[in-house]
Amino acid sequence: MKLFKSNCTTKVILTLNLALLILLSACEKKYVEITAQQELISDIEKLNQEVVEFEKIAEKSNDSKKIQQAFKKARLSYKKIEWAVEYFTPHPARFVNGPALDELEVAENTFIPPNGFQVIEEMIFPDYRLENKADLIRTIKILNGNFKQIQQHISAITISDAHILDASKMEINRILALGITGFDSPIAFQSIPEAASSLSSIGKLISKMNFESAESVQCENEINKLVNQAIHYCDSNSDFKTFDRAHFIKNFLNPISKKLVAFQKINKIENVDRNNVVNPKAITIFDKDAFDVNAFIPSEEYAYSADKATLGKQLFYENALSDDKTRSCSSCHNPEKAFTDGLKTNQSLTGSNLNRNTPTLTYASLQNAQFWDMRQLDLEKQSLDVITNKDEMHGNVANAIQLLSKDAAYQKLFKKAFPKSEKIEEWQVQNALASYIRSLNAFDSRFDKYMRGDSDDFTAEEKLGFNLFAGKAKCATCHFIPLFNGTVPPNYQKTEQEVIGTPADKNGKKISPDLGRYIQYQMPQLKNAFKTPSLRNVAVTAPYMHNGVYTTLEEVVDFYNKGGGVGLGIAVENQTLPADPLELNEKEIKALVAFMKTLTDKAYQ
């Protein structure tokens, strides 16, 4: 009997221990950290719920403040997942938080109306108008549908550490170039709180990689510390107009970027195999070699090389490319004038004035379209266009090759640049000229050196000018930092055109008769549309605008300060530039001009 009781007791104890182990195991499972992908999906679900709640408020209430608060809450939540939405689902992302402008498919002569947060922002800020109610509800429903599509896609893919790190670096560049400039919050001015929300995801993402070496943990802690400091700075300085972007970039965004690169190196995380415009090894986006010109070439055989650039430089001064052997590329793109001609508009072979100003060739390689009207997609086609143009060079490349082939020096240069070729070909001439232009990106201005920490040569006035450029004056919403052209960061896959209403003359009574991109693609949105040019070396490349109408930077700033063509009183129905006055005072205009002068490369100072 005792033996029976003992066995029973043992069985009970064993059963209890087993139950305890199961319970403890279950408890442990509850606290297992979820993956970055699982948390991302959870955040998308939360955002969906907030968008649904936003829709309910829009349906039931006409209270402007309630509707605006629901909007702000939803977009702050979106900013937490922006890194993933933009990286993994770029197409629906365009219709979640893209500009409130038609998406143009110029080749098909069609357009897609905009949708998403920025469209909603225009409906409800600065004040909600009741006549927008139906459109508002419809737009919110579409927004919610896009998020469901995004959720399905992200649930189905595999997200690696390499993807997370690459997306994190891109998000830092997005915050720098778009987030803090007001690009996607042009009316509500919520850019700074939204930048803080975007930053909040970076530290969490790095922590979820679970690398355990002491060096990795230390780097991870340093990243989190910087992120928390950056968020605190945003929280303490949330006013859009007074936010010190120069300080924020130099003391927070650049150091975070450096630490992300260090973290990648410590843990031997591979680079993602993609066509990176930004060099994945670049410590910050301000590095001298941060941008890869080969990301803008037509195909691999056109890749840049120093030998091609050397040949291209020789061809750049070659008169044999023109019909009458009197003009070369350098005739209109003078290196001493930062590769411009200093004229209001270019001159034809016969000396008559043409319609457009000669743009600088510096940094021209970091664009997805060439010429003011964007009629050519790459520098190879651009060079052929100019050579064969009857007003500019009226040349024939095939005829020029016959002369070049007889020149021993050229034969040697071509063989070195294109060692696999038996003879000189037309594409090689184009590629060599384009390669020379691709060598003209110095990135050695005083601004570059200041941002890299190589120099403190930046006055208080210049710093104010930069903060105005990237803030109150809204220049950086079209001239994106750090290229200061219209190539859209952080992917740099698209170069934008704008309709700003440039006047025909300084009287400012009529718009320039040049229809710009509309001449090639006759869509009403493109009337008077021109490519957004680079502002690098802008202080030494006057006159300004496509028609050279303004001779000083002060005149240009005054034009924008008044609201472009519409602000001058010109009827420009399709103006993409906001027509509201910027309300810059004389001190601010002076500071803005002072900053733009810091963008001059060393060779032209």
UniProtKB/TrEMBL annotation:
<feature type="signal peptide">
    <location>
        <begin position="1"/>
        <end position="26"/>
    </location>
</feature>
<protein>
    <submittedName>
        <fullName>Cytochrome-c peroxidase</fullName>
    </submittedName>
</protein>
<keyword id="KW-0575">Peroxidase</keyword>
<dbReference type="InterPro" id="IPR051395">
    <property type="entry name" value="Cytochrome_c_Peroxidase/MauG"/>
</dbReference>
<dbReference type="InterPro" id="IPR009056">
    <property type="entry name" value="Cyt_c-like_dom"/>
</dbReference>
<dbReference type="GO" id="GO:0046872">
    <property type="term" value="F:metal ion binding"/>
</dbReference>
<keyword id="KW-0732">Signal</keyword>
<dbReference type="GO" id="GO:0004130">
    <property type="term" value="F:cytochrome-c peroxidase activity"/>
</dbReference>
<keyword id="KW-0349">Heme</keyword>
<dbReference type="Pfam" id="PF03150">
    <property type="entry name" value="CCP_MauG"/>
</dbReference>
<dbReference type="GO" id="GO:0020037">
    <property type="term" value="F:heme binding"/>
</dbReference>
<dbReference type="GO" id="GO:0009055">
    <property type="term" value="F:electron transfer activity"/>
</dbReference>
<keyword id="KW-0408">Iron</keyword>
<dbReference type="InterPro" id="IPR004852">
    <property type="entry name" value="Di-haem_cyt_c_peroxidsae"/>
</dbReference>
<keyword id="KW-0560">Oxidoreductase</keyword>
<dbReference type="GO" id="GO:0030313">
    <property type="term" value="C:cell envelope"/>
</dbReference>
<dbReference type="InterPro" id="IPR038352">
    <property type="entry name" value="Imelysin_sf"/>
</dbReference>
<keyword id="KW-0175">Coiled coil</keyword>
<keyword id="KW-0479">Metal-binding</keyword>
<feature type="domain" description="Cytochrome c">
    <location>
        <begin position="307"/>
        <end position="441"/>
    </location>
</feature>
<feature type="domain" description="Cytochrome c">
    <location>
        <begin position="460"/>
        <end position="600"/>
    </location>
</feature>
<feature type="coiled-coil region">
    <location>
        <begin position="37"/>
        <end position="64"/>
    </location>
</feature>
<dbReference type="InterPro" id="IPR036909">
    <property type="entry name" value="Cyt_c-like_dom_sf"/>
</dbReference>
